[in-house]
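Page 37, continued from 36.
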C-alpha cells in the first residue's frame, strides 16, 4: 500500500466552508488537487493508495482525515470539496471513526500520525527538493510520502521527522504539491510497487 500524508497549516478544520471558494478555506484547493493526483486514474481510482490530510487551520485543529477510495464510496473528482466538508461535519470528539465508507476522521497531530504509520512498519519518505533522487531510492511496498501545502512542512516537526524518515526529491525545481504526488505515483507504477 502506498500512502500520502498532506500537511496544511491553514486548511479549515470544520465543514463550514464554501466548496465553491476553496482558496478561501485555507487553500483547500491545493489539498484537493493533491488528493486527486493521489487516488484517481483516468477511468477509476487507485485501490493501492491511501490519502491522509492533516489540517491545522481554524476552528478546531488538528484534524486527521484518512481516505481509501472503495466502490462503496460515492465520490466524484468534481466534488471532493463537498466530500471533505461532509467528513469534517461528521467528526465526533474522542475517537477515530469511519464516517463514510473508507473515510476516517480523528483529532491527531501531524507527528503522531507519522509516528503511528512508522510503528506499523511503513517506511516514511519526506518529499523535499533537497532530498535523495527518488529514482535512486530504495522504496518498499508499504511506503508513506509526506508533503506540505504552498507553505511547506512545519519546521519544528521536520526536526523530529528527520530521525524517522528519508528525504526524497522528485527534481531540482519546486513543484506544486499535487505535481509531486503525480510523480511519486508514476515512479511506483513503473517499479510495479
Ligand atoms: C509548493 S511546495 C512548498 C513550497 C514551500 N515554499 C517550501 O519551501 O516548502 C509543496 C510541497 O511539495 C513538495 N515538493 C515541491 N517540490 C519538490 C521537489 N522538487 N521534490 C520533492 N518534493 C517537492 C514538498 O513536500 C513541498 O512541501
Amino acid at each position: 500500500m502506498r500512502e500520502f500524508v498532506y500537511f496544511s497549516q491553514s486548511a479549515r478544520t470544520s465543514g463550514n466552508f464554501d466548496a465553491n471558494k476553496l482558496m478561501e478555506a485555507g487553500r483547500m484547493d491545493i489539498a484537493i488537487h493533491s488528493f486527486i493526483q493521489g487516488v484517481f486514474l483516468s477511468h477509476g481510482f487507485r485501490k493501492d493508495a491511501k490519502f491522509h490530510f492533516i489540517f491545522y487551520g481554524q476552528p478546531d485543529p488538528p484534524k486527521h482525515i484518512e481516505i481509501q477510495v472503495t466502490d462503496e464510496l460515492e465520490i466524484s473528482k468534481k466534488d471532493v470539496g463537498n466530500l471533505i466538508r461532509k467528513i469534517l461535519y461528521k467528526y465526533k470528539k474522542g475517537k477515530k471513526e469511519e464516517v463514510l465508507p473508507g473515510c476516517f476522521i480523528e483529532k491527531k497531530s501531524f507527528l503522531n500520525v507519522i509516528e503511528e504509520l512508522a510503528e506499523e512498519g511503513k517506511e516514511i519518505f519526506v518529499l523535499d527538493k533537497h532530498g535523495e533522487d527518488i529514482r535512486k531510492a530504495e522504496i518498499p511496498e508499504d511506503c508513506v510520502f509526506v508533503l506540505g501545502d504552498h507553505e511547506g512542512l512545519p519546521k519544528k516537526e521536520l526536526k523530529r521527522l528527520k530521525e524517522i524518515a528519508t528525504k526524497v526529491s522528485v527534481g531540482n525545481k519546486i513543484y506544486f504539491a499535487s505535481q509531486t504526488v503525480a510523480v511519486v505515483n508514476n515512479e511506483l507504477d513503473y517499479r510495479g510497487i
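The chain has a mean pLDDT of 97. Flag for discussion at group meeting. The first strand starts at residue 2 and ends at 8.
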